[in-house]
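Section 5: illustrative case.
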């Protein structure tokens, strides 16, 4: 777990928003770059003027891995890298599609679901619904 014991750092703010069902990323007031993972300083220009904004939620699968797991452990699951329209890359999971059909280039939409440990997490589904 990240963020534990870090006070009100940006990781904690991000997790607290997720716990309320809100997915937001940071945007730099200095250069306008979107920032993820949550940071204190903009990696593009060094400004500390980072605010929170709601992204479009739309993205494209950049890469995917299928993690094999026994059925009694919950079965196979996927791990993806998604490029959001805002230009940031996230590690996540895509629900609502067969792992065999999940491929780079798939257009996806973010929602707040549950991570592998049941914690609130940003998860994706195919744009246009399950297929
Ligand atoms: Zn910046």
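Designed sequence:
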């Amino acid at each position: 777990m990240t963020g534990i014991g870090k006070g009100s750092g940006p990781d904690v703010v991000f997790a607290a928003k997720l716990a309320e069902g809100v997915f937001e990323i940071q945007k730099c007031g200095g250069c306008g770059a979107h920032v993820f993972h949550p940071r204190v300083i903009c990696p593009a220009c060094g400004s500390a003027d980072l605010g929170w904004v709601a992204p479009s939620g739309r993205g494209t699968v950049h890469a995917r891995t299928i993690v094999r797991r026994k059925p009694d452990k919950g079965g196979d699951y996927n791990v993806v890298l998604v490029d959001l329209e805002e230009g940031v890359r996230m590690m996540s999971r895509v629900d609502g599609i067969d792992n065999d059909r999940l491929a780079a280039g798939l257009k996806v939409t973010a929602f707040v679901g549950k991570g592998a440990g049941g914690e609130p997490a940003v998860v994706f589904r195919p744009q246009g619904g399950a297929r």
